[in-house]
Amino acid sequence: MNPDTLAMAFVGLYYETFDKSRADLGSLYRQGSMLTFEGVKKKGVEAIVAKLTSLPFQQCQHNVSTIDCQPSGAGGILVFVSGSLQLPGEQYPLKFSEMFHLLGIPQGSFYVLNDIFRLNYA
Amino acid sequence: MNPDTLAMAFVGLYYETFDKSRADLGSLYRQGSMLTFEGVKKKGVEAIVAKLTSLPFQQCQHNVSTIDCQPSGAGGILVFVSGSLQLPGEQYPLKFSEMFHLLGIPQGSFYVLNDIFRLNYA
């Protein structure tokens, strides 16, 4: 699978899972994975899932605007996403950007080694 | 230098150089460096500098809002920036986000291996 195709497939899977069954995101991380969410740092599957499932909203809808991808010097790919996030009770969506470093695993799949998320406030 | 300190120092240097003497950014890249600027991909110092110096504005002012940093599995660090960009003749600044993978070199300095930039339009 070429990097751009993998990036698009991953981004689709990630936000669909986030919006529908957030606890299932754990399958995309490993023990060495890092998440920085709005400046809060977490490491490892359990801490990352605990953070993502404790966010102060139950429902959300990510709408992806752009997906950029580059090969990483570490192997795998860097994926950079911009888009908007619709939260319940909010009139306007919030803009966000997020980056991932995806690493392949021998079985042909991949996981998230690095994940940094930021809202882009007005 | 710890990663957060390096990230802050790099971000300060990068945007100060960008805003004051953009052509000098070449010293921060190497031949294997990659830039994706608003979806346009460039590789290598010359192509990257040519892209950055040909942007359709002469003056600009980056204002950084957030800097996040994680160690990369490839060595070096991943730096994720959000902020705003004031262009001449524009009433309002444009929001942007940008990521870098910085790699160290034996002399104790570092260079940009990966660079992805996006404006976050309203």
Structure commentary:
The structure is a homodimer of 122-residue chains. Chain A is α+β, with helices and mostly antiparallel strands and 122 residues long. Chain A has a 6-stranded mixed sheet with strand order 2-1-6-5-4-3, covered by helices on one side. Chain A is 22% helix and 45% strand. Chain A is built from 2 helices and 6 strands, in the order αββαββββ. Chain A binds chain B through residues 32, 34, 36, 39, 41, 65-66, 68, 70-76, 78, 80, 82, 95, 97, 99, 101, 103, 113-114, 116, 118, 120-122, and chain B through 32, 34, 36, 39, 41, 65-66, 68-76, 78, 80, 82, 95, 97, 99, 101, 103, 113-114, 116, 118, 120-122.
Q: Note the main sheet of chain A.
A: 6 strands, mixed
- Tell me how many strands of chain A there are: 6
- Oligomer description: homodimer
Low-confidence stretches of chain A: none
Task: Give the overall average pLDDT of chain A.
Answer: 93
Strand order of the largest sheet of chain A: 2-1-6-5-4-3
CATH topology of chain A: Nuclear Transport Factor 2, Chain: A
CATH C-level class of chain A:
Alpha Beta
C-alpha termini separation of chain A: 37 Å
For the record, the CATH architecture of chain A stands as Roll
Q: Give the radius of gyration of chain A.
A: 14 Å
> Number of DSSP helices of chain A?
2
Q: Biggest interface, and residues per chain?
A: A-B, 30 and 31 residues
Helix percentage of chain A: 10-25%
Query: What overall form of chain A do the CA principal axes indicate?
Result: globular
Provide the domain count of chain A.
Answer: 1
> Could you spell the SSE succession of chain A in H and E letters?
HEEHEEEE
Provide the β-strand percentage band of chain A.
Answer: over 45%
Structural class call of chain A reads: alpha+beta
